[in-house]
Specification:
Largest sheet: 4 strands, mixed
Radius of gyration: 21 Å
Order of helices and strands: HHHHHEEEEHHHHHHHH
Strand order of the largest sheet: 1-2-4-3
Length: 390
């Protein structure tokens, strides 16, 4: 059955949306994302400053049982506090702005599945840090966390399927290294699988069904460019390096003597949450530069500017629906340029494709509390693993 999105009017149809108007949806999502990220940054800072993990641990049984309960309490609290933000971001705010939303019961089931899988991944991350620290102290915890992070990077497509139930489709008319997947979320953009070499480009089947042939061909050309010219690899290596450095920093700040304890695992996650917040402030610039670079490479190959303009506006309507955006707001919060800035931007070189949002996903390995709180994916399980790339 074809589950590609349908659109209520021509202004919402990607293939025909040439100059769409800003509905305010993007700004509403940004405010929600700032609220969620700010909440967890303040909470992490407060818990670390007050030594709350130690205080709670003193009230629990000693040993493995108490350590497991401490981690479980953190994750349960995270789920309960995040739940209202998820409902707002995944259902209430999109519905208010007449975005495509499923019936409430279906959304609730999708969200429940996503939360269960996401929380399981966080618990496995805690288990890896705990086991590694128990066996080898801080070096053991770092080695275990690094290994688990590389597994999450290599298995990203599998994790996405577990979280969001994505359905793959075969299309014999497109490149063999490209696969279509169906998602109920209109903002799903897919991504590129592989650990240290690009393997498969995953694209939403909705783009194939709703973009014009010319627009979809340009989408394919852009993905091939980032895979072929090293932009994906730079983004992947940068995200892995940023996450590894953050994990080591978090372990050191939590204290070498706490490695292999429940308190150490919890405080490592809280410190890494603050590290992730710092990344949210500067990594988007590297992602935007890679998008500008990709566009420029194709322009140099003869792709006319009007093709970029129509595609950019079409895809923007499936994301924030914010074609015009202030440069300072974009510089801090948005790894994907707005349609107006992208069309007007001069030639650029360099950048690391998708480094910002790949780093958000890989933060799972270090128990980051920001992995599903940023404005683009809060409340949207289909975007918790494959955050929007373009």
């Amino acid at each position: 059955m074809n589950t590609a999105p349908t659109y209520a009017n021509a202004a919402q149809t990607p293939a025909t949306a040439a100059q769409p108007q800003d509905s305010g949806y993007g700004r509403a999502r940004l405010r929600l994302g700032i609220t969620g990220v700010g909440l967890w940054v303040v909470a992490s800072t407060g818990l670390l400053a007050t030594g709350a993990a130690d205080a709670v641990a003193d009230q629990l049984p000693a040993g493995l049982a108490g350590d497991g309960l401490l981690v479980a309490l953190l994750l349960a609290t995270y789920v309960l506090i995040q739940l209202p933000l998820d409902w707002l971001g995944g259902y209430a705010v999109p519905k208010r702005f007449a975005r495509r939303t499923p019936p409430l019961a279906r959304y609730a089931a999708t969200l429940a599945r996503g939360i269960a899988a996401h929380t399981t991944a966080l618990f496995l991350s805690a288990a890896a840090l705990y086991a590694g620290g128990s066996l080898g102290g801080l070096p053991g915890a770092f080695a275990a966390g690094l290994a688990w992070m590389l597994c999450l990077a290599a298995w990203r497509g599998t994790v996405a399927g577990a979280v969001a139930g994505l359905v793959s489709q075969n299309d014999q008319e497109i490149e063999t290294d490209t696969r279509l997947q169906t998602s109920s979320d209109e903002g799903f953009t897919g991504g590129i699988t592989g650990l240290f070499a690009p393997k498969t480009s995953i694209l939403p089947s909705a783009w194939r069904d709703n973009l014009s042939d010319d627009q979809f061909e340009l989408v394919l050309a852009r993905r091939q460019t980032v895979m072929r010219d090293g932009l994906w690899l730079r983004g992947r290596l940068g995200a892995i390096g940023f996450t590894a450095a953050g994990l080591l920093t978090a372990l050191l700040l939590a204290g070498p003597s706490s490695a292999g304890t429940g308190v150490g695992v919890v405080e490592t996650g809280l410190w890494f949450t603050l590290w992730s917040f710092v990344g949210l402030l500067f990594l988007p610039s590297l992602s935007r530069a890679a998008i500008y670079t990709t566009d420029e490479k194709l322009r140099q190959q003869g792709v006319p500017p009007e093709r970029f303009e129509t595609l950019t506006h079409a895809l923007d309507q499936l994301q924030d629906g914010e074609p015009v955006r202030g440069r300072w707001v974009e510089r801090v919060f948005h790894p994907i340029p707005s349609a107006s800035n992208r069309i007007a931007e001069p030639a650029a070189t360099g950048g690391c494709w998708d480094i910002a949002r790949t780093s958000v996903y890989l933060g799972l390995s270090s128990m980051s509390l920001l992995t599903r709180s940023v404005h683009c994916n809060v409340g949207r399980p289909a975007l918790w693993v494959w955050l929007p790339t373009d």
